[in-house]
Design a protein that fits this description.
With 199 residues, this protein is an alpha/beta fold. It has a single domain, classed as Leucine-rich repeat, LRR (right-handed beta-alpha superhelix) (Alpha-Beta Horseshoe), CATH 3.80.10. The chain is 14% helix and 24% strand.
Length: 199
């Protein structure tokens, strides 16, 4: 953790925090909004504090962060292990770029408040660990965004109890069958963006 962020943590008077993780632990000057609606954008938890990848394996630091309510986590760099996220049970906004090594959402079983999930480049069997149907009766506004991800069984979250305010898919390659499988999932706003064809 770089000196400026250590100082912020030591002087922090907030009860709720959001984290950002970058390759060098430096803050990002800006953050893209993947969602379409203004309501979804306002629900995002912009990072207050930035970590480096090695900080996610520092048990003393994670225990210290556990004293706060961690509501958001924005990961902008590849990580070898995402299990540390299970330490933040109140996490509701999770954004993962460069998720090539993300092959399981088992950590999300502990995240009962998770309502906004954006993933990039992940390959997962399904999304039921993050979105079991029984959680949908408590949280109304859920958003799911997948950029160049491969989900083997999209329809696993197509339960009648499952509903997303936004379901946004950016496939790496156009696939009409995949689009139809995602369309089985109940969503207020559903987008399956067709990749631009190279000329």
């Amino acid at each position: 953790m770089i000196a400026s962020q250590i100082s912020k943590l030591e002087s922090c008077q907030k009860q709720c925090l959001s984290l950002g993780i970058t390759a060098d632990g430096q803050p990002r000057p800006s953050l893209g909004v993947p969602w379409e609606s203004t309501t979804s954008a306002f629900n995002m938890c912009i990072p207050d504090l930035y970590l480096a990848p090695e900080d996610t394996q520092d048990s003393a630091l994670l225990e210290r962060l556990g004293a706060f309510e961690i509501l958001g986590c924005y990961i902008f760099t590849p990580l070898s292990d995402y299990r540390f996220l299970s330490r933040f049970p109140l996490l509701r906004d999770l954004y993962i770029e460069e998720g090539q090594q993300l092959t399981s959402l088992a950590f999300a079983r502990e995240l009962e408040e998770l309502s906004m999930l954006f993933l990039e480049n992940a390959h997962l069997p399904d999304l039921t660990e993050a979105f079991p149907p029984e959680r949908f009766s408590r949280i109304a506004h859920r958003c799911l965004g997948l950029y160049h991800c491969r989900i083997d069984c999209p329809e696993a979250i197509s339960s009648p109890r499952t509903y997303f305010a936004e379901l946004l898919i950016w496939p790496q390659l156009p696939d009409e069958q995949e689009r139809l499988r995602w369309k089985q999932v109940h969503a207020g706003t559903f987008r399956y963006y067709q990749p631009r064809q190279k000329k």
